[in-house]
Fold this sequence. Notes:
The chain has eleven helices and 14 strands. A six-stranded mixed beta sheet has the order 6-7-8-3-9-10, sandwiched between helices. Strands 2-1-4-5 form a four-stranded antiparallel beta sheet. Helices cover 37% and strands 29% of the residues. Helix 4 crosses helix 5, helix 5 packs parallel to helix 6 and helix 8 crosses helix 11.
Amino acid sequence: MLSCRGLCKRYGERLAVDGVSFTIAANECYGLLGPNGAGKTTTISMLCGLVQPDEGDISIDGHPGGSLEAKAAIGYVPQDLALYHDLSAAENLTFFGELYGLSGNELRGRVAETLELVGLADRSKDRIGSYSGGMKRRANMAAGLLHRPKLLALDEPTVGVDPQSRHAILETVGRLGIAVLYTTHYMEEAAKLCDRIGIIDDGHLIAEGTNEALIAKHGGHDRLLLSCDANDLVRLRAACSELDHVYEVAEIEDCLELTTDRGPSVLPAVVALAAGHQVELTGVEVRSPNLEDVFLRLTGKELRD
C-alpha cells in the first residue's frame, strides 16, 4: 500500500530526514517511533504530500507520492486538531466531506458511519468547542476516515487525552482493517497495535521489525531486582556474583540488580542462595526487556528537544 525509498529532506543546513525507506502492506499497522526532532512528522508530511522531499521516491496504492490519486488514498490525522470549534461534529464532517466531493445521501451516510466508528454518534450535534480533549481527538480521526482512505496516517493521536479516550482511540485503530501509519511516544501502544515498528533517530531509520524481533535483537538481558536489609546487601551481592548465568550484579537504589538471560529460571536459585546466607528478601522482581528498553538502547537516554 505504501513504499518509500531514500527519503531525504533538508531545512537549511539541517538534514531532517536522511535516506528513510520502508513499506506498509494493505491492512498492516506500521509504527514509527523516535525521540522529539527525530524526523517522524517530516516523514509523514512527505508521505502525505504536504512536504516535497528533496530526494527519494514514494508510492501509495500504486500512485506517485504527491499526486492527487495518492493523496485521495490517504487519511491524515495530524497532531494539532484540524477542526472548527464553532461547528458541531456533524457540521465539521459535512464540510470536509464536501471538500472530498461527497454529497447528498452518500455524505450523510458517511458522516453517520464515521461518527459511530469513533463513538461520537450521540454527540454529533454538539459543538466541537464543548468536547473534551479526548473527544476532539476522536472527532479529528473521524475527519481523516470520512472518505474511506486505504492508508490512515496518525501522528501522535493520543497525546494529552484521558485513559478512557485513549482506550477508545486504540480500539478504533485496532478494528479499522486498513493500512495504518502510526507515530506515538507510548511504547505500549506501539507494542499492542503495530504489526511492525520502525525506530527513527536523527533522520535515520535505525531499526525495523516486529515487537518481538526488536526485543530479541536489541532489548538486552533480563534483570532481577532484589530488596533486603542494607546490612545484608554486600553479603548477598558477593554470593550472587557466583551464580551461573548471572553476568553482572550491581547496587541500584538500595537494591541488587542481577543481569541474566534466564530471569525466571534463575530466580529459585537466588531465593535459595539468600536463604542459605540467612538473608531475608523483602522484595523480588523479574524485569524482562520490552520495547521501551529497545528504544532507549538505540536512541540513548539523553533528553533532547
